[in-house]
Amino acid sequence: MKVMKEMQQKPPYAMIAILFVGAFIAFLNNTLLNVALPTIMHEFDVKPTVVQWLTTGYMLINGILIPASAFFVQRFSNRKLFITAMVFFTAGTLLAAMAPAFGVLIAARMIQAVGSAMMMPLLMNVMLTAFPIERRGAAMGMFGLVMILAPAIGPSLSGFILEHAEWRALFEIILPFAVIVLLFAIFKLRNITPNSKVKLDVFSLILSSIGFGALLYGFSTAGDKGWDALIVYGTIIIGFVALVLFVWRQLRLEEPMLDVRIYKYPMFTLSSIISIVVSAAMFSGMILTPLYVQTIRGISPFHSGLLMLPGALAMAIMSPITGKIFDKYGARILAIIGLTITAAATHYMSEFTQDTDYYYIMGIYTLRMFGMSMVMMPIMTNGLNQLPMNMNPHGTAMNNTLQQVSGAIGSAIFLTIMNARMESSAERLASAAATAGNMPTTQEGLAQFQVDLGMKAMLEGINYTFFIATLVTVVALVLSLFVRRVKVNKES
């Protein structure tokens, strides 16, 4: 306890910097690849549903390993865990850069995912251990900057690199940084997180892997295969049943792999609910905005990435600032202001037209991300502050897992809403045109009419989905009224 107090008075900034850089390149590498998927699909001659496994497989490994991170963080030292994670990530990056076949590239991505899955939970636990509660907001704000900045610059950086080099350069650029971080970790990293000889319940690991893995896969493939596909609703049902059994088993174990009893703490429970709702709304914007900009407005992927960059940068810059405000005033005022701004901006996005100005879109999107920057980390940190120190690994593991799952579920549901609205709008517009006698008679005119009708229907679908996202954000705003500042629980 004395050592921990001394460390909190003078946190190990050099060591935390090593962890930050490692987490940054892991997050960056994940988003770099998204823009390159069409290029990789063409080179290896694979279908879109197959190339998507480069991101789906990565996400599945994260969904399987993050719930188990509570065990790993408690059982192994932060030094050993981080070095192991960086070895996996570096090996996966090297293999991806040299991949001679698509199957090898998928394997490389999954090896990378084994390393990156441990990064976020490990870094969050180190931050909670190294800083006293009155400085946690600023510390977690800096963590939020790393978590947000990497995905923010990823698409634009990837687009720039792909204009001047082949897709392998995306891994070749990351590789030397991964090696440097690994070497620094070997020679400079020391242990600060407490460890205990907890035992891994293998059956719990199997249940969580099936549960979270099946749910993520089911919801992630719903947009492509449709909700009526057996593989979609079948995996979702299997995942749900496995998770029910997983929770039941955790409540019966003396040393659970992921302790669900953390939900007896009301502020942590509330923070989880708000985070799930906000994550779902945030992912709607990250998917629908590029779809609107590129399909409706005809803007290139690179300039689409540039349009979204100021918003992501605003979110990253605000993260440490909101952290300091949180330390002084708590999460409630930040969440109320942030969600009010987010709801208003999302409402304005539901009114986009076929010729909305590029910079107006950029401004509204930036305002939306600015509002969200006041919510995520403060709410999450407020919830974690109520947990006893020995439950921090379980709290961070649960938060990170729910972010993965709510992102996948939110994306699938919002895309389903958009598609349903598109279909009904297309039928209504076609019927109205036929009734008014405005249907073209020539083949060329009919083709153009169908294109215009499709664009109008998609725009209505996107606008309606943003309207639903506004209502979802308002739900989070109402929930934030019940947030209260908590005192740290000193149980160990």
TrEMBL record:
User: GO terms for CC?
Assistant: plasma membrane
Report whether Cell division shows up as a keyword of the record: no
Give the membrane topology.
Multi-pass membrane protein
Task: Name one molecular function that GO assigns to this entry.
Answer: transmembrane transporter activity
Which spans are transmembrane here?
A: 12-33, 53-73, 85-107, 113-133, 140-161, 167-186, 198-218, 230-248, 268-293, 299-317, 329-346, 358-380, 401-420, 462-483
Q: Where is the Major facilitator superfamily (MFS) profile domain?
A: 15-488
InterPro entries the UniProt entry points to? EmrB-like, MFS, MFS_dom, MFS_trans_sf
Localization, per the record, is: Cell membrane
Q: Does the keyword Endoplasmic reticulum apply?
A: no
What are the protein's UniProt keywords?
A: Cell membrane, Membrane, Transmembrane, Transmembrane helix, Transport
Question: Which NCBIfam families did the record assign?
Answer: efflux_EmrB
Family named by the database record: Belongs to the major facilitator superfamily. EmrB family.
What name appears for this protein in its UniProt entry?
A: DHA2 family efflux MFS transporter permease subunit
* Taxonomic source organism: Psychrobacillus soli
